[in-house]
Design a protein that fits this description.
- The complex is a heterodimer of chains A (653) and B (554).
- By secondary structure, chain A is an alpha/beta fold.
- In chain A, the strands form 7 sheets. Chain A has a 10-stranded mixed sheet, sandwiched between helices. In chain A, strands 21-25-20-15-18-19-26 form a 7-stranded parallel sheet, with helices on both faces.
- The longest helix of chain A has 19 residues.
- In chain A, 51% of the residues are buried.
- Chain B contains 16 helices and 21 strands.
- Chain B is globular and about 65 Å long.
- The longest helix of chain B has 21 residues.
- Chain B is of the alpha+beta class and 554 residues long.
- Classes of the chains: A alpha/beta (653), B alpha+beta (554).
- The interface between A and B is large, with 35 and 47 residues.
- Bound molecules: flavin-adenine dinucleotide (2 copies) and iron/sulfur cluster (2 copies).
- The site of one iron/sulfur cluster (SF4) has 15 residues of chain B, from α16.
- The site of one flavin-adenine dinucleotide has 46 residues of chain B, from α1, β2, β3, α6 and β11.
């Protein structure tokens, strides 16, 4: 390998929104995010890819040339110059107003064209290069672009690399999957690798900075220079369209409930956790409440409503049932059938489970090569299923690590729009400003963006089907319906071992909960725990009891101060892996328990997306209680043992 | 091709991109263009972006810009006229905004209590007629763009760590290491060399302090004295009762008797800046500037002014107040000191901005003549620097104010006050010598914001994995400090030590289990007030590798 191309991106710094970043609309009293006051910065995960490139150069071969490329506004040049100052050899800026308004598909195409041109101009044409990208960008967080670049270039993509090792002259990548870790080796270059956070920042060097500011030329190309077709870039080349942007309603504050006893607190937590009661007035699902009917009209798209049913080791991922529940609702509205696509090796028994959840059709694509997840084979199997039995008008995929690899690839091949991580999906007519119906019965895909700071309604356009991914846990799965009748279609897709150019060398299986950021339950301690004995013991006891009670793995977190005071374990201390907050991790668990944490803004920033927040603090006036749903006032040393007892006794259950 | 060493050499190197550093660079470049257009003038600033580490009041005496940038005023005025003619559409450029902020109303109030306010006449030496209010961050940002347009190279995001000198002459500087705690990623120090190095690193500038030590530049002088300024900027509605183009100074509440300082309220464009200045020699060991600012904000009148407003920025910085008798020698072989790093602040008005600019212009002149003669010796630099400071009346003002601050430190001070201009040098000790075990027990008002919020509003950020830039040289000593200054009967929940109280951003806390001070360097505002207040002189503040506040309006 002689070159590494790094895809970078300029993003607004959404982790650090200044107080005047929110502008109040005097009429509605709503706040909207003013992007102009946000600082621009290089996307942090793309930077991880860049640091990986620098490290690879240091460790593998000093002669590797690093070329960084970005598509963006002219001011993105600043970030490219910064990359040069840190250590990139060349930089390419794709900029033109014709690129603007691009969705992931049009972005991927433009970048792919840019990379082709780079190969011609800046490389020797032998294809001895790799492309490094961040797993996803913080502003869009779709994780689609890199995978789609790979599809456009016809190269393999290794997603979610969390590290690499040097093996002689070549590189092995360690990629994280939902079920553990794989070590893979690319058999051929070019090849694309996406990175998760894994290494430390590298800094600018003064001499390089001065050189880059004064003399270094960077390449600036528009659509013509890279030979991009006008109909494939910008808004025109997009397959999705954002047609409504609004600010998500803020979580209501100051309605913390203070239960009279610890028993009733545990009881309340259980009821909230199981969904029996709703504590915070979360956003009402307005679209789903109003009943939509087609009233005999034809919907814009034709076909059934499908889901991709994810399985692992002969077991269905729970998100499959959640998706089927939503698919049923959408199909009923549209008056069509539901279908589930299942890929794997010995998967016949699973069809019944899907029919029990009211699938009308189950498409089984079975093949020996589908035994374990392999992005290329799985993509091909799904595409062939669509070609044979579809297309459906809607295809829903779980936003699991697997689904987030599969869906962008399928959508790119089928030339269909895709919206990632939808929080709401419903059928509606699309009306223009004047209120005229322009499209009948389309799928409204609502999602958050900019780190949860804005919401957008998105629709698919110019596609054969509408695709969306949904995070696990967002939809409540219906219970089994044992006498539902459905049909099973089984076929064997045409797959060859040679279809792929990456080799999986080893797989380690473990439940990869994705750490604290993905955890369903997080228990965190702060300075109120006072010493490390207290911290370790109390948190361990509570975690264990909570874990047993809710049958879910519990992750332990800490406030920054607890880490600075060294109250936490060494593994937690390491790289501040368990620090929650603005300068630590952002979490979004279903249940968050904060013990002896005062609730400073920098801390609550990182937990604001939690569903149920429980706070234990000895001071009634602690700010955390303005933020929590359930509050327990008292000393943690006394409260926790009692809570543990209640949880273990199954009281309040 | 890229030759590293070539890029580490320059003619003029300026440490610190504040008003003083940028004025020096602009003027030096302009003058050097006459004789050596290829000469490189480079400014290195630790903030990620110009203006982000600067904090001031501020009332600005803008005449100094007329010499630095002839013609700017007319241009700005015509923009302003046009703006008025078109009914105020669009956005004003910085210079026009500056002119629009001319002070029209000025008040001095004595606040006897949190409810009362008595208007006092403004003494002529405090008058701000013809001055303008300004946000220093914006001023600096603008000076930076002017500098660049004139060919000055400006590199923010680099912290200078040490001075390189040989044979008694400054030869350049070393930059702070990056990733210093990680072997595999260790990036070695870079050495920048220059013919002349300008020390424009502000109050208690870490590099200037090194220079003073290395060359004993303060021999026989008073030590420097300081105050800290803590402030908050509010976004208020246009019908705000304070109004525009107005400033007010306050003495009395919230500070206790005998403590130097006071409050200020400035309207800058459509924002209101409220700040509190407090002497580092305050005798109460638990006096807490952030709490005092909040107390000022809860004063009936002040609270009424900011009611309904939203705090959008906050931060702290120190002011060098020793004046004339505390100035170090301002030149060495190959080096020259400007601005707050010297201590060019007129304590009668607490103004330093225009002296920073004027001293920069004077230094630019000295650099010009030194370059012409190829001689950067202390003597040559001094021979051109000092007379230029005199012509620009910098020294004259400094001499007039020479004892103004010092009289406050003496118990008989107030009586001597009227005589301050004719008294001989009043000797003072370092500020921390005046700290006693006495406590004042001022409480943070209910509903007031805490120190974490101040840190939040300043936008401060330091990479979490970075080594702490604050060190306690002998942590065991802190136990003695707690024993002396903390009242054990008060419990160990909120321990009093001078550093915990001094820091406006909650960088210090006492871990009573392990009996040691715990430091959260991430919150730091770079004001250095903690180090000044540490009575046992064990607190060392050094320049962090990267990070710091992100002021845009302070
Ligand atoms: C730029 C910046 C970034 C930051 N980033 C982060 C971040 O990412 N994450 C983060 O957490 N912080 C962050 N902070 C720090 C933050 O401002 C707070 O200082 C920190 O969160 C406080 O931690 P704490 O709540 O554990 O400690 P404290 O504020 O000391 O609170 C301890 C709490 O425990 C309670 N308590 C005491 N005894 C008991 C007892 N026996 N039982 C129960 N409760 C008790 C007290 O009433 C108090 O409320 C950041 C600050 C800055 C300036
Ligand atoms: C609260 C307050 C109110 C004030 N009010 C007024 C007023 O109303 N009117 C007035 O005229 N003056 C006022 N002053 C004083 C005025 O702000 C200063 O005199 C002026 O800012 C001095 O400019 P300077 O360039 O010397 O220093 P600074 O503005 O402090 O700039 C120094 C620069 O050097 C950088 N630096 C420091 N060390 C390093 C390093 N090692 N490496 C790289 N960079 C470094 C810093 O980041 C900073 O940007 C006030 C000051 C304060 C604190
Ligand atoms: S650092 Fe100084 S002020 Fe702080 S506790 Fe130690 S001795 Fe006291
Ligand atoms: S630690 Fe020191 S320098 Fe930093 S904000 Fe606190 S007082 Fe200022």
């Amino acid at each position: 390998m002689k070159y590494i191309v790094v895809c970078e991106k300029v993003v607004p710094n959404v982790a650090n929104i200044p107080p005047n970043g929110w502008k109040e609309n005097p009429k509605t009293g709503e706040y909207t995010l003013d992007r102009s006051v946000l600082d621009n910065e290089p996307d942090p995960l793309a930077r991880q890819a860049f640091y990986a490139a620098l490290n690879v150069r240091d460790r593998l071969n000093k002669d590797i040339k690093i070329i960084t490329i970005t598509m963006g506004p002219p001011m993105a040049e600043e970030i490219l110059r910064d990359s040069i100052a840190v250590g990139a050899d060349e930089a390419v800026l794709l900029t033109s107003k014709n690129f603007a308004g691009a969705d992931t598909r049009a972005t991927a195409y433009a970048l792919a064209q840019g990379i082709r041109k780079t190969e011609e101009v800046l490389m020797d044409g032998a294809g001895e290069y790799m492309i490094f990208a961040g797993k996803e960008a913080v502003d869009g967080d779709t994780a689609q672009v890199p995978i789609q670049i790979a599809k456009e270039l016809g190269v393999e993509c290794i997603a979610y690399a969390g590290g690499y090792s040097v093996n002689g002259n070549s590189l092995l990548f360690h990629r994280m999957t939902e079920y553990g870790r794989e070590t893979v080796s690319p058999l051929k270059t070019p090849c694309l690798v996406t990175f998760i956070s894994h290494t430390h920042a590298r800094f600018r060097n003064f001499a390089r900075t001065r050189w880059s500011q004064r003399e270094k030329e960077i390449y600036v190309w528009g659509p013509d220079e890279i030979g991009a077709k006008a109909e494939r870039i910008g808004g025109r080349g997009s397959r999705t369209q954002v047609y409504n942007i609004f600010t998500p309603p803020k979580k209501e504050t100051a309605n913390c409930i203070f239960p009279k006893s610890i028993e009733s607190a545990v009881d309340l937590i259980e009821q909230a956790y199981s969904g029996k009661i709703k504590l915070s007035k979360a956003e009402e699902e307005k679209g789903e409440l109003q009943k939509y009917t087609l009233n005999g009209r034809e919907s814009e798209y034709r076909g059934d409503v499908w889901i991709y049913a994810e399985q692992y080791n002969g077991k269905l991922h729970p998100v499959s049932f959640e998706l089927l529940t939503k698919a049923r609702e959408l199909a009923d509205t549209l008056g069509v059938k539901t279908g589930a696509v299942l890929t794997g090796k010995n998967i016949d028994p699973l069809a019944k489970d899907l029919i029990d959840r009211r699938a009308d059709k189950v498409y089984l694509a079975a093949h020996d090569l589908l035994d374990e997840f392999h992005p290329t084979h799985y993509t091909n199997a799904v595409v062939q299923t669509i070609d044979k039995y579809g297309p459906p008008q809607i295809l829903l995929v779980g936003a699991t690590p697997l689904g987030r690899e599969l869906a962008p690839a399928v959508s790119y091949i089928k030339d269909a729009g895709l919206t990632a991580d939808c929080t709401h999906l419903y059928i509606e007519d699309y009306k223009n400003r004047k209120g005229e119906v322009k499209k009948t019965g389309i799928l409204v895909q609502r999602r958050t963006a900019l780190g949860g700071n804005i919401m957008a309604d998105i629709m698919t356009k110019d596609s054969v089907m509408q695709m969306a991914t949904v995070r696990p846990g967002v939809i409540k799965a219906c219970s089994p319906h044992l006498d539902w009748k459905g049909e099973v279609e089984k076929f064997s897709p045409k797959l060859l071992p040679d279809d792929t150019k990456i080799k999986v060398l080893s797989r380690e299986h473990f439940t990869n909960t994705g750490g604290i950021e993905q955890a369903k339950i997080v228990v965190a301690g702060g300075m109120g725990l006072k010493n490390s004995n207290n911290f370790t013991n109390l948190l361990a006891d509570l975690s264990e009891a909570v874990s047993n009670r809710f049958q879910e793995k519990v992750e332990v977190g800490a406030s920054r101060r607890a880490i600075e005071f060294k109250l936490v374990s060494t593994t937690c201390q390491q790289d501040r892996g368990c620090q929650i907050g603005q300068s630590g991790k952002s979490i979004r668990p279903k249940l968050y328990i904060a013990i002896g944490i005062s609730g400073a803004v920098q801390h609550t920033e990182g937990v604001k997306n939690s569903e149920i927040i429980v706070a234990i603090n000895n001071k009634e006036e602690a700010p955390i209680f303005q933020f929590a749903d359930i509050g327990l006032v008292g000393r943690a040393e006394e409260i926790i043992p009692q809570m543990v007892k209640c949880l273990n006794n199954g009281m309040g259950g | 091709m890229f030759n590293e060493n070539k890029y580490r050499e320059m003619d003029v190197l300026v440490i610190g991109g504040g008003p003083a550093g940028l004025a020096t660079a602009i003027h030096a470049k302009e003058r050097l263009n006459e004789v050596a257009p290829e000469a490189s003038v480079v400014v290195v600033e630790k903030a990620e972006d110009l203006g982000r580490h600067n904090l001031s009041g501020a009332v600005f005496r803008s005449e100094c810009l007329d010499e630095l940038l002839p013609g700017w005023r007319d241009e700005a005025q015509s923009e302003l006229d046009e703006f008025a003619a078109t009914g105020g559409k669009g956005k004003l450029s910085f210079p026009a905004e500056l002119l629009a902020n001319k002070i029209e109303k000025e008040d001095l109030y004595v606040l006897p209590s949190e409810k009362m306010r008595i208007k006092a006449p403004v003494p002529p030496e405090m008058s701000h007629e013809n001055d303008h209010t300004v946000s220093i961050s914006k001023l600096v940002k603008w000076l930076g763009s002017v500098a660049k347009s004139k060919g000055v190279e400006v590199y923010p995001g680099f912290s200078v760590e040490g001075i390189a000198s040989t044979d008694g002459a400054v030869k350049g500087v070393t930059l702070a290491n990056r990733n210093r705690d990680r072997d595999d990623l260790f990036e070695p120090k870079e050495l920048l060399s220059a013919k002349v190095t300008v020390f424009a690193d502000g109050a208690r500038g870490p590099l200037t302090e090194q220079l003073i030590k290395r060359y004993n530049l303060r021999g026989g002088k008073n030590p420097q004295m300081y105050s800290v300024g803590v402030k908050k900027v509010f976004e208020v509605s246009s019908d705000n009762p304070f109004g525009r183009n107005r400033i007010a100074h306050m003495i009395g509440y919230p500070l206790p008797m005998g403590v130097f300082g006071g409050g200020f309220i400035y309207s800058v464009s459509n924002r209101i800046h409220v700040g509190l200045v407090m002497g580092a020699d305050a005798k109460y060991c638990d006096l807490d500037p952030q709490v005092e600012l909040e107390r000022l904000l809860s004063h009936d009148w002040v609270a009424g002014l900011i009611k309904g407003g939203r705090a959008i920025a906050s931060g702290s910085r120190i002011i060098p107040e020793g004046g004339f008798y505390s100035f170090p020698d301002q030149t060495v072989n190959g080096g020259i000191i400007v601005g707050d790093a010297v201590g060019f602040v007129d304590m009668r008005k607490i103004m330093g901005l225009h002296y920073a600019v004027l001293s920069g212009i004077s230094a630019g002149e000295a650099i010009f003549y030194s370059t012409k003669s190829g001689d950067y010796s202390k003597k040559t630099l001094k021979d051109y620097y000092l007379p230029n400071l005199e012509t620009r009346k910098v020294m004259e003002d400094m001499r007039k104010a020479r004892n103004y601050r010092q009289v406050f430190q003496k118990s008989f001070g107030p009586m001597l006050f009227p005589l301050h201009r004719i008294l001989p040098k009043i000797k003072v000790s370092e500020d921390h010598h005046y700290i006693s075990e006495k406590k004042i027990n001022h409480k943070r008002p209910a509903d007031a914001t805490d120190k974490a919020t101040l840190a939040l509003l300043s936008g401060t950020m330091h990479p979490e994995e970075q080594d702490s830039h604050i060190r306690i040289l002998n942590p065991d000593i802190c136990r003695k400090c707690v024993a002396k200054y903390h009242d054990a009967d008060a419990g160990m929940e909120s321990v009093v030590t001078p550093c915990i109280k001094a820091c406006p951003a909650e960088v210090y806390a006492w871990n009573s289990d392990e009996e040691r001070i715990v430091i959260s360097p991430g919150n730091c505002q770079h004001c250095q007030f903690c180090a000044i207040r540490c009575p046992l002189e064990v607190l060392e503040w050094s320049v962090p590798e990267s990070g710091g506040p992100k002021h845009k309006e302070c």
